[in-house]
Amino acid sequence: MQNARRFHLVVAVVTTAAILFQLVLVVQGGEVLDEVEEPSLPVALYRFVAYFTIQSNVLVAVGAWAVVRDPAADAAWFRRVRLAGTGGITVTGVVHFVLLRPLLDLEGADWAADKLLHMVVPVLAVVGWAVFGPRGRIDRGAVVVALGWPIGWLVVTLVVGAASGWYPYPFLDPRPDGVLAVVVACVGVTALFLAVVAALAAVDERLPDRADSAA
């Protein structure tokens, strides 16, 4: 149990620090993606919380802090946050590596924050989930939230983007390559979410729960 608590403490601290680090950079006018014009502070803060990356990291942090408090946590809200966070951060890492990383040209602190949020946290979160658990926390309610949240986020993002002209990720913007390209990207990412959640559920049934057994 102590090993689980220590590792999840690392996850919680690193993830929380990464979020705050990026927030400070946003307030100071740092880059998130290569934006043509620097937005006002209220708009920048809205965009900060609108990024799926940030939302995924927040869920990971909440779940990790919960495990630090109780390595055998099993409340209904925890199940939902844990699966949504783990699934979301996994997709975040994959999508960033495949679609976004080649588009970015960040330097210094902006580069460091980007790597923490998109690479370091996903690896830590998945390793913590796979190695330390807690296990047996995936139920129907957790699956509904883990899939419903990104679908809801996508719908809201596309609607707001159509009205405002701003999209958090280039592959959601229909202006460069047309609506069909956005549809293809959305279908692909949705399929990835389904695969990731299904894989997490399958693995969860087969791995031992070290946290509970240690307890």
Largest beta-sheet characterization: none
- Pattern of helices and strands: HHHHHHHHH
**How many domains make up the 3D coordinates?**
1
Q: Summarize the amount of helix as a percent range.
A: over 70%
Structural class: mainly alpha
Portion in beta strands: under 5%
- First-last Cα distance: 6 Å
Q: How big is the Rg?
A: 17 Å
- Average pLDDT confidence is 88
Tally of individual helices? 9
Report low-confidence residues grouped into runs of 5 or more.
Answer: 211-215
What is the number of strand segments? 0
Bulk shape:
globular
Q: How would you describe this structure to a colleague?
A:
With 215 residues, the chain is an all-alpha fold. The protein has one domain (2-214). The chain has helices spanning 2-27, 41-50, 52-69, 76-100, 108-132, 140-164, 174-177, 179-206, 210-214. The radius of gyration is 17 Å and the shape is globular. The N and C termini lie close together (6 Å). The model is unreliable at 211-215 (pLDDT under 50).
Give me a quick take on this structure.
The chain has 215 residues and is mainly alpha-helical.
